UDP-glucose 6-dehydrogenase (Arachidicoccus soli), 437 residues
Amino acid sequence: MKVLVVGSGYVGLVTGACLADIGVEVCCIDIDENKINNLNKGILPIYEPGLETIVKRNVEGKRLSFSTSLAANIENVGAIFIAVGTPPGEDGSADMRYVLAVAKEIGNCIKKYAVVITKSTVPVGSSEKVRAAINEGLQSNNQTTTFDVVSNPEFLKEGAAIKDFMSPDRIVVGIDSERAKETMDTLYKPFLLNGYRILYMDIPSAEMTKYAANAMLATRISFMNEIANLCEIVGANITHVRAGIGSDPRIGKKFLYAGVGYGGSCFPKDVKALVKTGKDNGYNLQLLEAVEHINDAQKKVLFKKITRHFDNDIKGKTIAVWGLSFKPNTDDIREAPAFVLIEDLLKAGAIVKVFDPIAMQEAKKELGEKVTWCRDVYETTQDAGAIALVTEWNEFRLPNWQLIKANMQTAVVFDGRNIYDDVFLHKAGYCYYGIGQ
Ligand SMILES: NC(=O)C1=CN([C@@H]2O[C@H](COP(=O)(O)OP(=O)(O)OC[C@H]3O[C@@H](n4cnc5c(N)ncnc54)[C@H](O)[C@@H]3O)[C@@H](O)[C@H]2O)C=CC1
Ligand SMILES: O=C(O)[C@H]1O[C@H](OP(=O)(O)OP(=O)(O)OC[C@H]2O[C@@H](n3ccc(=O)[nH]c3=O)[C@H](O)[C@@H]2O)[C@H](O)[C@@H](O)[C@@H]1O
């Protein structure tokens, strides 16, 4: 089957590359000419472990191509994935403009039955809007081509996207036609070697499942951050508490790490969008409003600890910030907690030296000359009064603490992800602050 993937960002590229890798003929479309030109030269717009190899293999195998034109590539296509962005609008709702523009374009040029699959994260009711936009395109061209719409939200995590796509826990498919189900079975069954995990359901339930999943995960994180903050006040340790509650299988071990708040392109925007969907329907999602407020406050926790340690005077002090991406193994800096910390440090008059193994190029676009860009963690600590660990990259886990201490004016570590052993660092002569301990 020939497939189009519209939107060659994170989700579009991973979807296109993974489908090509099982033998499907895929063309990835994007309106960003620069992105497509680069992809045609083998330059990827994102850093994602393993993706470059798969893209290269399938381009060479002539199963994967890139283009700016949907119309020029639509002939004999059996399925079209819509994987464009749905950023937050000013009122927090998901901005559907890009999805609907693609739907209309599909209506303008589709000549043969195809299944139109929404992979972008979209609010309940959006698939009907997609259907209407395709029909609008068809009518304005006096066409009567038949098509089906399907909701197929994506659950991949950045940094582990290939594994998540190739070996998914589940594939959620919202559907209202048997013919479309055949297409979805054909495309997805090859990925389900370890059992049958396509969950078919009605379209609104599939759309809601995506938001409910992200909102649940965000809730767990805010919950743990609140408990961590209370642990600090009452003298408990969140690391022990996490182990204690996580070993109950009803709770589970994953996604219980307290830290500096969740970031990324999805949790913040999807929680906001779900709250807005509630409001639009006369329902106040109080829990999720609290989840968002707690997260905003948590992004300020390291700054508060730093200023408290230095008696509210960090003017002229150098602070070494380790990690800029919103989590390790990605260069994505969207809503990354590091930027909230850096802005607060700069406002308070601190000198900020930063290092990230992958995200520096992206971060430079945001921060310009406001901070000192360093080649490694050691350079950040030259004359520094403190280290603030924000992103838990592997290479930050066991640096040469002796060397670092010799560089620093005062040996203080603020560990925003609880990756260091406080006893070990105390012995090494450091003053250590974690989260919730
Ligand atoms: N990034 C992630 O890890 C995940 C994202 N999602 C959802 O998937 C959707 C896409 O997210 P990302 O891939 O991160 O976005 P992105 O911003 O990386 O990529 C979107 C791409 O769509 C292109 N585009 C916009 N309008 C277009 C049009 N009319 N025709 C062709 N291309 C067009 C843009 O140029 C851009 O390259 C969002 O709804 C997001 O919530 C879902 C799961 C994971
Ligand atoms: O809809 C999406 O886009 C995706 O959003 C998240 O994936 P992602 O944003 O890539 O990253 P996560 O690994 O979920 O981390 C999100 C944030 O939560 C933080 N986090 C995560 C786990 C934890 O225990 N504690 C914690 O603070 C991370 O540091 C990061 O800032 C979901 O995990 C994916 O399933 C979903 O498909």
Residues 2-201 form a domain with the Rossmann fold fold (CATH 3.40.50.720). Residues 121, 154-158, 214, 217, 221, 255-257, 259, 262-264, 266-267, 326-327 surround uridine-5'-diphosphate-glucuronic acid (ligand 2) (CB under 6 Å). The chain has a mean pLDDT of 96. The first strand starts at residue 2 and ends at 6.
